[in-house]
Fold this sequence. Notes:
This protein starts with 16 loop residues before the first helix and ends with a helix. The longest helix has 18 residues, at about 15-35. It has 14 helices and no strands. The protein is an all-alpha fold. Helices cover about 70% and strands about 0% of the residues.
Amino acid sequence: DGRVSIEVDPRISADGDKTLAEARRWFDRAEAWFRHTVNSVADWARLSYQRLALRVEERDFEEVRELVPLLVESFEKLDMREEALKCRFLEGIVLMELDQPTRALETFRRIRAGARALGNDHLLATALTNLAQLHAGLGEAEEALDASRHALLVWRRLNNRVGVAKIHWGMGDLLRVKGQLSSAVEAYRSSQSEFAAIGMRGDVAALQLRWLGGGRRYELVPGPLTRTALRGRAERPDYLDLLGHITVPTLVVVGSDDTFTPANAGPEITAVQVPAAVIEAAKANLQRIAAQLP
């Protein structure tokens, strides 16, 4: 019908200024096309939203806060309520970035209500996830858990396994802080299972290490799943033979909860692989530093 519509992802990659400039060029091309189309008001509004999202990426937060209400009003006049909610998301993100959690909570509550009214589950799940994050940051664990449970239901309804996995992870952190360790383990296990099912093994391993870092010896996912996730670490090349060539003061760090370099490995490594003179030099340096501490 001669109309042109363009949707540019506002999430800019790591290419920096070059990518931002390319996004602006595409916006300019879209604007040029809209000048020659009929009934393009809605497309103009969408383009304005994309430009605003780009300003968020450029961290031009004050400009975004000034323009969001105007753009929301435009979308509402056009009866484009979903687009109006997306603008509210930009506002919420900016408020989080500006460390204004109370105002951000108000914004995401409005988005939650609007998404429910529209029946838009994706916007609803995203709003609930942000509410959980904000409540957690404010130390409001119960409110954060409540928002997480509601978000979990919606992500499951959408069959969004990444969303489900991330919510389980966050719930594990919250339950762990509250001292509900068995429930935290179950939440972490559920998160690992979801990440493993979609091939995100790095997140499986990160969760295992996160729990071990708390000083607890739990295998979150029993059997081969955790071993598979951690195999990448275990299969790294062995550099022990190179340690004998070290000629600078060296500190060997091991840990009682470190699966790959446990505490009893320290003496073995230093005695066999690292020259004695280097170890003595390291000890002398540490003693000198310790003597200077208050």
